[in-house]
Specification:
With about 140 residues, the chain is mainly alpha-helical. Helices cover about 60% and strands about 10% of the residues.
Length: about 140
């Protein structure tokens, strides 16, 4: 039996769920980016720090996969954080080709300072959802 949904050619760009998801992600990123800029931090750098605060010794590849980010964006964020002394790089003892990352004391201090603002933004974004909608979003 043929699929009877409206053909994609008849849908406008804002009718596609994936388009709406990308638009939402971009808006969230832009709103958060302006707050991070005041701390001389990019969204990509924050994501690296957030990951390392929860998963010490993560690699750049693990961070890229966790956030579905562009590899070069993650590498630039790692380089910037390393140059600023917020993270340290260490060669993995298990696989010498892998570089593991850790927050430094300064990185932990910066993370701790930014976390309340990030949590406020997170709760603000989710405040429009009821518990069932939030659960569905997490399952997606």
């Amino acid at each position: 039996m043929p699929f009877s949904a409206t053909p994609a050619a008849q849908l406008g760009p804002n009718d596609h769920v994936l388009t709406l998801c990308h638009m939402l992600a971009n808006r969230i990123g832009k709103a958060f980016a302006s707050e991070l800029e005041n701390q001389d931090m990019t969204v990509a750098e924050w994501r690296v720090m957030l990951t390392l605060a929860q998963h010490q010794n993560a690699s750049g590849q693990e961070i890229t996969g966790r956030w579905a980010m562009d590899k070069m964006a993650v590498n630039r964020a790692i380089s910037s954080l390393d140059q600023r002394g917020l993270i340290r790089k260490m060669r993995s003892s298990e696989d010498r080709r892998t570089i593991n990352l850790q927050l430094t004391a300064a990185g932990r201090k910066m993370y701790d300072a930014l976390l309340p603002m990030a949590n406020d933004r997170y709760h603000e974004l989710l405040s429009g959802l009821d518990k069932n909608e939030e659960k569905q979003l997490r399952q997606t």
